[in-house]
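Changelog entry

Holo records now carry the ligand SMILES as an explicit input line rather than a separate metadata file. Below, a converted record for nicotinamide-adenine-dinucleotide, shown in the new format.
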Amino acid sequence: MTTLEPSDKALVPFVSVDHMMKLIHHIGVEQMMTGISDYIESDFKRWELFDKTPRVASHSEKGVIELMPTSDGDVYGFKYVNGHPSNTKDGLQTVTAFGLLADVATGYPVLLTEMTILTALRTAATSALVARLLAPKGAHVMAMIGNGAQSEFQSLAMKAIAGIDEVRLYDIDKAATAKCAANLAGSGLKVVACETAEEAMLGAQIITTCTADKQYATILTDNMIGSGVHINAIGGDCPGKTELAPAILHRSEIFVEYPEQTRIEGEIQQLDPDHAVTEIWQVLTGQAKGRSDDKQITLFDSVGFAIEDFSALRYVRDQIEETGLFHPLDLLADPDDPRDLFGMLQRAK
Ligand SMILES: NC(=O)c1ccc[n+]([C@@H]2O[C@H](COP(=O)([O-])OP(=O)(O)OC[C@H]3O[C@@H](n4cnc5c(N)ncnc54)[C@H](O)[C@@H]3O)[C@@H](O)[C@H]2O)c1
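Structure line, unchanged by the conversion:
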């Protein structure tokens, strides 16, 4: 068999897990989440330009596999992502992902990258960007309920972007809390491991729920939530998968990414389909109000939207040329004569 060298047109920059980790260490994890949150903010501010659709979900008994596409007219992006809460029992992750950017003018891919780690960064960057907008003034303590894969990223982004200096951890699995506390040692955050969710919420102005269960769960009950807090609800992100008691939703001002998707997947699937919500992009552009007073409970009903992945992909694409942290991947067949694909195959015999 003849081996033909791929042409430049065949090659697409591919960021492996190894290169992604090197990139994050090169930039710094907090700095990279801050950079991604700036990209998300600037993309949310041009919200109306984007193609938007609720993500395309394929549900099974054990989990979900989703495709998340969007385009700003010049660049197209999508992410493949799964959510399988029982995976960790078998030594697998709940969430894994990869993503792609393409040039709209030619349709040619311009970046393929791991996104399991990048999703954790973009999710935390989005949470912290929103907390900076909505949390009460001077918020500096966060309760972190659910201490799995996302939890350290959430904590560090909230430190770098929203200004917290203390995180109070709780998980039904003490080993998860111990892991998170150990990983955050030396981060500059005061870390307190707690025995109950109530204890974790003592003195917290920001409450993050980031648990994984494939069913309606009640991580926060109504009596646990006092006035004036900001709730960052991450784990309720699928039909039938929520974390908050409905009574909390009725007491909160609710903020969402894209209502058409959140009404299917978020905490608000528990409410009437016309319950009032505010879109984050409108707060960022000044078209809608954020927090209106110190007593208000603000709730970010986060499910994760395609534009956040697009922003993270754009950010990575802008970093790799200078750092060289990618492999040129022989991804696209490139015959000398574009119509002679078969001839190219024949010559490879
Ligand atoms: N909104 C978004 O953009 C977004 C993005 C990524 C992941 N997620 C969701 O975030 C959640 C967490 O993801 P992960 O990768 O960290 O999952 P993970 O499985 O690694 O961690 C989840 C943790 O929650 C704990 N937990 C389960 N029930 C609990 C309870 N009742 N009280 C306290 N802790 C409890 C588990 O013990 C586990 O440690 C998942 O539901 C995932 O689908 C959302």
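Spot-checked after migration. The mean pLDDT is 96. The domain at 126-304 is CATH 3.40.50.720 (Rossmann fold).
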